[in-house]
Specification:
Blueprint lengths: L1 H17 L10 E13 L6 E7 L10 E6 L4 E9 L2 E10 L18 E3 L11 H4 L1 E3 L4 E6 L1
Parallel strand pairs: 1-8
Antiparallel strand pairs: 1-4, 2-3, 2-5, 5-6, 5-7
Length: 146
């Protein structure tokens, strides 16, 4: 159990530390791609929501594109633009204390709410297969509940 918690802690910390930087990989974006609009529904208030767009090779690592947004009326919405067709996953965290990272209990359990596309709930580290969705040439709208 400690190994699973340690794995989750290390993987999520790595993801959320890099989620604030927006990186552009030309193999994953094109000037005439589509958009992915992500709406996060929150129960909590305060802070910001950090968003990370991933493919299978970047999942639980540095995102292809990362950003954050404020919370208004229990929601936080961002749009990733110029996204090339393919298979992606979204990871989000409610950075309640605005320290730009995910906080953990001494036991390794997350203190802040997090989620992923498809709203999958895992008893271990998040898996790309649970979060993946297809992007074609039409805009995608995703809702994630925390």
């Amino acid at each position: 159990m400690k190994t699973i918690l340690l794995t989750i802690t290390l993987a999520l910390t790595s993801f959320f530390l890099s989620a604030q930087t927006s990186t552009e990989d030309t193999s994953e974006t094109i000037s005439e791609g589509t958009t992915i609009t992500v709406t996060v529904i929150l129960r909590g208030t305060g802070g910001h929501v950090m968003f990370g767009l991933h493919n299978e090779s970047t999942f639980m690592k540095e995102p292809l594109e990362g950003t954050s947004n404020e919370i208004k009326d229990g929601k936080s919405i961002v749009t990733f633009k110029n996204i090339k067709p393919g298979t992606y996953g979204i990871m989000v965290v409610h950075d309640k204390n605005d320290n730009k990272r995910m906080d953990f209990e001494p036991s390794g359990m997350p203190k802040e709410a997090y989620g992923m596309s498809n709203n999958s709930i895992n008893m271990g580290p998040p898996q790309f297969n649970d979060a993946k969705f297809e992007v074609s040439d039409t805009p995608v709208d995703i809702e994630i509940k925390l």
